[in-house]
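The instructor's notes for this session suggest beginning with a concrete chain rather than abstract definitions. Hand out the sequence below and ask the class to guess, before any prediction is shown, which regions might be ordered.
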Amino acid sequence: MSAWRKHRRWLIGQVALWGILAVVLRVAVVPAETCPRVDAAAVERAADAGGDWLARGQRDDGRFLYGYLLDEDRVSSDYSTTRHAGVIAALYMLGRIDAADAGLGYVRENLISHDDWTAFAPLGESVDVGANSLLVVALMHRREATGERRYDGLARRIGRFLVSQQQADGSILQYWQRFAERSLPGVFGKFSTGEAFYALALLDRNFPGQGWDRPAHRVADYLATRRDEVEGGLREPDHWAAYGLATLAPSGLTGTEVEYARWLAGYFGYLIRYESQHEGSALNQLSESGASLGTDGEAAAALWRLAGIDPRLGDLRGRLADRVSCEAGILVDRQVSPRHRNRLARGAWFDDGYTQMDDQQHAIAALLGAHEVLR
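After discussion, reveal the predicted structure:
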């Protein structure tokens, strides 16, 4: 009897078993990507609708609706100075100058000064590097959007606060305590260091030759090489760092900074691929909020710009364009219709029935970045 005739039932069973396992692996673990088709016009409409949500929820004092629970039809009473500054920056990027200026009015009512610097800190709060970094970002976006220079002095004074928080190793302490009039030692923010890096890079771009490049490169080197050791834990993927690297690129990046950018591109590219493969799946362990999806898209778009400037990263540009386009399609697909009957839901991005101001902030910024790629 031939070996085939003797073992065919077993062999056929093994082939069938491995075939089933391959199908399960493909469908459940490594499914095909789902990237909704999108164009520049759709991206622009979605960003505008997100801006509408922010503007509709703005209060008389310039603050914004913080969060909204759809199923309970309830608004959140929380607030965050860092997210306030981030929303202003997104609105300036979007060209919503009036709403952003109203938000800036709240900031101007809550400024403090110490030594040679000024900072944003409402009464009762410590001065937060994250909030003030994003305020600098907002002021630089306003400068670019309007051509006005009226807040240049304020931006530089806030920049001096950021530099005053920088340590010798390039790290940046998160808080300055008003009551003690000193920095809080040993406390670092999850994202405030990257936010400060981006702010310093923007100051260098807008005010070249004034010395902002030195602290910017110091913090970039810290993010790339020492942050894990100093702060503990694994390196945090930071979309603000991607913005900072892209902003510094025209004046030249170090080899360490280029390698850090390549690592960021790989990490955010993986996140977007995972999202596209598990969109709406119970296996998706990532947040599907507008903030989470948006930051991944922001990083990919910033790194796409960087790859177009620095030839050492030029090989990444095509793949980054694909990732940006895919993420933009997901964002457009997940946005609540601007014609929804509930005005607090229109144009928003929800996760488990909840949305908050930074969901719109980051989604808008990601869509504006995608618009550059798609147009």
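Then share the key points. The first strand starts at residue 67 and ends at 69. The longest helix spans residues 3-29.
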